[in-house]
Each structure stands twice: as C-alpha cells, then as structure tokens.
Write a structure and sequence with these properties.
binds nicotinamide-adenine-dinucleotide; alpha/beta; globular; Rossmann fold; seven-stranded parallel beta sheet
Length: about 250
Amino acid sequence: MGRVDNRVVVVTGGGSGCGREDSILLAKEGAKVIVTDIDHEAAMAVAAEIGGGKAIALQHNISKDEDWVRVMKTGQDAFGPINGVVNNAGVLLMGDFESMPFADWQRTQETNVTGYYLGCKHAILAMKEHGGAIVNMASILSTLGSANYFAYAASKAAVASLTGSVVAHCKQAGYKIRCNAIQPDGILTPMVLKQMNLPRDTDLKMIKDSPMGYRFCYPHEVANLVLFLISDEAASISNARISIDNGNYALSEF
Ligand SMILES: NC(=O)c1ccc[n+]([C@@H]2O[C@H](COP(=O)([O-])OP(=O)(O)OC[C@H]3O[C@@H](n4cnc5c(N)ncnc54)[C@H](O)[C@@H]3O)[C@@H](O)[C@H]2O)c1
C-alpha cells in the first residue's frame, strides 16, 4: 500500500529541483503524476525516470490560462479525476529596488503570482466536486523583506495570501479542498546552485554548510512534506504555512 495510492496529482515545475523529487516520491507512493514544466524536455526526462505508466509529461507555462485548461483536461483524460495540485514552478530573479529592470519584476510576478493564482483556480475547478489537496510553494521570504530579492519576496507573500484565500473560498463554498503553503529556504536545487554560481549538476555532497552556522536542506526533504500534505495523513491540516529551513532564522543570540 502506498501513501497516495491511485491519487492523480499535478506537479508544476516537475522537471527540476523540488518538483522533480515531489514527482518521483508521489509516484513511488502510488500516485499517478502529471509532471508539467515550461521546459518540456526536463519534464519528459522525469516522467521517463518514473516510468511504468505512472507519469506523463506536459509542456506548461503556469502563467497562461489556456495552458492550465489543456493540462487539466489532458491529465484527467489520461488518469481520471485530479486529487492534488502542487504549485511548485517558480523563478528567482536577483536585483534591488534601484537596479532591477522592470521586465524582471514583471516576469517574477507573472510566474510566481499569476501562475499560482491560475494554479489555485484550476485546482479548485478540477476538484470542487470530489475534494482534494493543494500545496503551494511559498518561501521564508513570504514573511520577510529582502534587499536583493525584493521582487521574489513580494511574489511569495502573495503565494501565502492566496493560500489563505483558497481555504476561505472553499470553506464558504463547502468544497472539501485543503490548501497549505510550504516556506522553504536554502534547498539545494538548481535555483539555489545558480545563486551560488555553481553548475546545476554539482555533487550536493560536496557543498558544506556555512561556518557561520547556515545549514542547507535537500529537495527530497521538501518532497517528504509535500507527500504528507497531499496524503490523507494531513486530512485535518489546511491553511498551514510550514517552514523547512533548518531553523536558520531562529535568533540564537537572544
Ligand atoms: N530552493 C530553495 O531554497 C527555495 C526556497 C524557497 C522557495 N522555493 C520555491 O520552491 C519552488 C521550486 O524551486 P526549486 O528550488 O526546485 O527551483 P528549480 O529552478 O530547480 O525548479 C523550478 C522549475 O520551475 C520551472 N518553471 C519556471 N518558470 C515556469 C513557468 N512559467 N511555467 C512552468 N514552469 C516553470 C523551471 O523550468 C524549473 O524546472 C519554487 O517555487 C521556488 O520559488 C525554493
């Protein structure tokens, strides 16, 4: 018996990092996974790695409404009614208030805010009759300001807000849909490796935690939490924001 046997779950950004690990673990625990990514080749590689008819890969830009309509229809046609959506795809663009090009601000909000609004909307439309679970990838920056990642911080604050509003809407409408947010930081994925100027195929075992006490986390640890939140083990958990950051933001000097 798997922990999510026969669930049908959409994972956006499933071609890399956390989304790749989420897709692999959900399939291992019995789910049928619709692996989507703007990078179709990356999504296809993950679906092929899962194999056994347990996954399909779809090209998907999360900020396009028509892409969501196609993804949800194709996914349902392949595996049946959708039970879970992991809104995981995202972009992290660096820049401060004075230097960030307006186009970078717009791309951040289009992907991380509009993409998550559409992900929540289409998850609700697909699951309102039979129920299900949504997991939104927020960030530790959902609740903090940031000098060099201010656009990303603003977008992830919106993801946390959308999570609460999904729960409020589903409660008002009487839908049995749970929605939770994960607030990670320092997960060793290609997104973070890029910020560290390291190649995406870096051997993660070679990366040491900082001597200042900052400890990294691994994408399979995020996947464990995603699996739990999608499964019935979390049947009473909705509207939670769960940090996964090794406690790096605890104030040990106080
Ligand atoms: N890694 C961390 O430390 C960290 C911290 C906080 C939050 N997060 C969040 O976790 C999620 C996963 O991040 P990751 O670290 O695995 O990053 P990643 O860069 O390894 O993977 C992100 C994936 O999203 C895809 N993507 C980007 N734009 C897209 C779009 N418009 N439509 C569809 N797919 C798109 C990319 O192609 C990529 O495959 C993101 O939402 C990120 O903001 C990560």
